[in-house]
Amino acid sequence: MYTTIQKWGNSQAIRIPKAILEMTTISENDKVEIKVQDGNLVIIPIKKHKTLEERIAGYEVEYQCSEWDTGKPTGKEVF
Q1: Does residue 43 lie within any of the structural domains?
Q2: Does any domain span residue 63?
Q3: How confident is the model at residue 13 (pLDDT cuts 50, 70, 90)?
Q4: Is residue 38 part of a domain?
Q5: Sequence-distant (≥ 6) Cβ neighbours of residue 34 within 8 angstroms
Q6: Which residue range(s) make up the domain with 42?
Q7: Which residues are CB-contacts of 16 (< 8 A; sequence separation ≥ 6)?
Q8: What pLDDT, on a 0 to 100 scale, did the predictor assign at position 68?
Q9: What 3-state DSSP class applies to 39?
């Protein structure tokens, strides 16, 4: 697939065809890094931060909470 570099204000821009974008993990308004590698323009998506729910969803090991001893008070801790 081909596209054209066009003027956009004082910069140059390309439009990414929908078919190409759908083959990636990039979508509208996502942050990306643009760099040149071996003379080629490379667009790399910036990793998105996972929510706590997304992180917990991948956790499969059973975990039992327990208390632990932090030692004797050493100052004016409030109980």
Answers
A1: yes
A2: no
A3: very high
A4: yes
A5: 41, 42, 43, 44
A6: 6-57
A7: 3
A8: 86
A9: coil
**pTM over 0.90, yes/no:** no
Q: What is the pLDDT of residues 17-61, one digit of tens each?
A: 999 989 998 888 889 999 999 999 999 999 878 888 888 887 777
Tally the C-alpha atoms within 13 A of residue 31's C-alpha that lie toward its C-beta: 4
Distance between CA atoms of residues 14 and 7, nearest Å: 9
Could you tell me which residues are beta bridge partners of residue 20? Answer: none
DSSP 23: T
Q: How far apart are CA 78 and CA 73, in angstroms?
A: 9
76 domain residue, yes or no? no
Q: How many CB atoms lie within 10 A of CB 57?
A: 10
**Number of domains observed in the structure of the chain:** 1
